[in-house]
Design goal:
three-stranded antiparallel sheet; two-stranded parallel sheet; 3 helices; 32% helix; globular
Length: 98
């Protein structure tokens, strides 16, 4: 998922976050609700926002879904632009550069 940090807030690109689909995959819908539950803001057509206080929980959640292998790495890894600078330590286990 494309990610960036601005003013201390982590933003996930709205086109990369999972969609809720009625009657869809239980895993994908659970993933959607888990990500949404800790987001500071999660609008349909805007980037989802996560404050630093939840980054540790986000890391654990993404690692858990990645280890389940029900979802692809592109769906569970945060991809930062090279211009971002250093990735915060708490996010490094689930982050990479674009």
């Amino acid at each position: 998922m494309r990610a960036k940090i601005n003013d201390g807030v982590l933003f996930l690109h709205h086109e990369d976050v999972p969609e809720y689909k009625k009657g869809g995959s239980v895993v994908r819908n659970s993933y959607f609700w888990a990500l949404r539950s800790i987001a500071g803001k999660a609008s349909r057509y805007k980037d989802w926002e996560y404050e630093p206080e939840v980054w540790f929980a986000l890391t654990r959640m993404l690692l858990s879904f990645a280890e389940s292998r029900y979802l692809g790495l592109s769906e569970t890894v945060l991809e930062f632009p090279a211009s971002q600078g250093e990735i915060p330590e708490v996010l490094r286990p689930i982050a990479t550069w674009e």
